[in-house]
Design a protein that fits this description.
Blueprint lengths: L16 E7 L18 H4 L14 E3 L2 E6 L11 H10 L3 H5 L12 H7 L1 H7 L4 E3 L2 E2 L1 H10 L4 H9 L4 E2 H5 L11 H5 L9 H14 L2 E6 L1 H8 L2 H21 L5 E6 L18 E7 L14 H13 L11
Parallel strand pairs: 1-7, 1-8, 4-7, 5-6
Antiparallel strand pairs: 2-3, 3-9, 8-9
Length: about 325
Amino acid sequence: MGGRSGPSHFPDRLSPHVLFVFLDGVGLGPPHARNPMAAAWPGLEQLTCGQRWTCQTQPFFRPQHVFRHLDAALGVPGLPQSGTGQTALLTGFNAPRIAGRHYGPYAHSRTRAVLARYNIFRRLKARGFLVAFANAYPPVFFEQARQRDRWSVTTRCCREADVRLRTLDDLARGEAVAADLTGRRLREAGFPVTPIDEAEAARHLVALLRRYDFVLFEYFLTDQAGHRQDLNEARRVLSSLDRFFSELLNLLDPERHLLVVTSDHGNLEDLRVRTHTRNPVPLIARGRGAEVFRHACDLRDVTPAIVAALETAATPSFRPSPPRP
């Protein structure tokens, strides 16, 4: 599972290796005292050419580096939610429009057919690319998800595309990454995990990237900190992410790798409220193939651009013109 899906895989490996780091609940809001994103975070600022992550951060298109503001509301009233936002992000379809509203945290029943057929893992595997989901889960996650049939959007994508969900055994071998990067939360919860630092987590992700064309890693502590409205917790989360990205950018080769970073909705950038926000979310594409993201406008544009970045490099005559669902 998650391996070669047929003879269409490109043996010359001309395509970039794409690492998609999905940050839950990170928007671009006004700078103020309760916006922890407005502080100086050197690692994060490498992704935006020295700019802090606020609504004042200027979009840009440079060789192998694109930064855009993405609309997460998709023309639907109300506050964006994780279930429909992540479905839009990982399929290219307007999930809140299909559902009739913003919905979360799980996939809405009306969007599950779209998620099953068009999710990014399935689309890439159908084209012969090797794909992996990097997150490691403890046994209790699988027990509860099966009992309630409440899978997160990312894990539901994996199940629909026959992509293996990684366990603590994978984590121990360095073949997966904990949701908090370090594994400390798993250790505190009583699981037999040896914590690592953020730099080691970055090395484990890059090691996976050598074996797969596409790797997705999901980080949800940003959204959790936003809901708690705890400025100190938010700073700890951002400090951890900052260390992670500092090392990750040192490891990635922009001639061979494409890093994509984005979110599903705003939250962490405004600790004055417990809810999500309607602020735009950041999109960073850095490395080989980044130019295909230069016209991205909303969550629907991410998956088609990732597919295009991989496929155009492998087949130069290919010119994608995906429909806008």
